[in-house]
Design goal:
260 residues, alpha/beta, Rossmann fold, 2 domains, 8 helices, 47% helix, 15% strand, globular
Length: 260
């Protein structure tokens, strides 16, 4: 399917690896010129080179932390009027007990999972409305619909952001601007592998055994490839997806047990 995106521009945050990287790749394969942002220059430049080599589209790499004012300004200076915005932030720190966190810790979490994506949307939305085309995809988490112990640091701020998106998406869709959230479950990213290694060490088992346990949590019986996620992101950005907005789409292999 031709998604009708050739010649469009996209700004993708946290794109040096994992789900952000997969999303940038999938958009580039559709002919989208991408500006990718991440905090670490080395992995980011490697990703930019890989995308250029495979797709031939324009790729701009911006080393910045979009949770801060200066980082957002730097990213937006490189891509001030994107047709597509993909917001993404790495997972929260592993904290076994929320009582160990102080006010500054919570402020950092709110900046990352609520304030930063809201301000990126605020900065780019009106241009999309004027051009009568815009696609915003926010990479959040399955914990928004299925909170779990030790992941409340992610679930709380993300739930607030989800509420913000729900209202805004219904205001702007008449302008052919859609806003949706993608909620990943278990995907085979670097971060998941790192977490698996820690969990396997703590449990006294092999990494292969820990992967098998995680895979068994989903009815699909496997951990997904990030490319599957990236292609789903690209579809939501496509011209054909203009009637899909305000949704929280799970990519979890059926793990979420609810009907809605």
């Amino acid at each position: 399917m031709d998604l009708g995106l050739a010649g469009k521009t996209a700004l993708v945050s946290a794109a040096s690896r994992g789900l952000g990287r997969a999303s940038a790749f999938s958009l580039a394969r559709e002919g989208v010129d991408v500006t990718i942002v991440a905090r670490r220059s080395g992995p980011l430049e490697e990703t930019a080179a890989d995308i250029r080599a495979e797709t031939g589209v324009g790729v701009t790499a911006v080393t910045a932390d979009i949770t801060g004012v200066e980082g957002r300004a730097k990213a937006l200076a490189s891509c001030p009027q994107p047709d597509i915005l993909v917001t993404n932030t790495g997972g929260p720190p592993h904290v076994s007990d929320f009582r160990r966190l102080g006010r500054d810790d919570w402020t950092d979490l709110l900046d990352a999972y609520l304030v930063a994506p809201v301000l990126l949307i605020q900065a780019t939305l009106d241009g999309m409305i004027e051009r009568r085309f815009g696609r915003i995809v926010n990479i959040t988490s399955i914990v928004v619909k299925m909170p779990a112990g030790s992941l409340e640091l992610s679930a709380g701020p993300r739930a607030g952001f989800t509420g913000f998106v729900a209202g805004l998406a219904r205001q702007v869709v008449r302008h052919n601007v859609t806003i949706n959230n993608l909620l990943p479950g278990s995907l085979d990213t670097d971060r998941v592998r790192e977490n698996m290694e820690v969990r396997a060490r703590d449990a006294g088992c092999t990494i292969e055994e820990m992967y098998a346990r995680r895979a068994a949590l989903a009815p699909a019986g496997r951990i997904a490839d990030p490319a599957e996620f990236g292609d789903t992101c690209a579809f939501l950005c496509g011209a054909q997806a203009g009637y899909i907005t305000g949704h929280n789409l799970l990519l979890d292999g059926g793990r979420y047990p609810g009907m809605f």
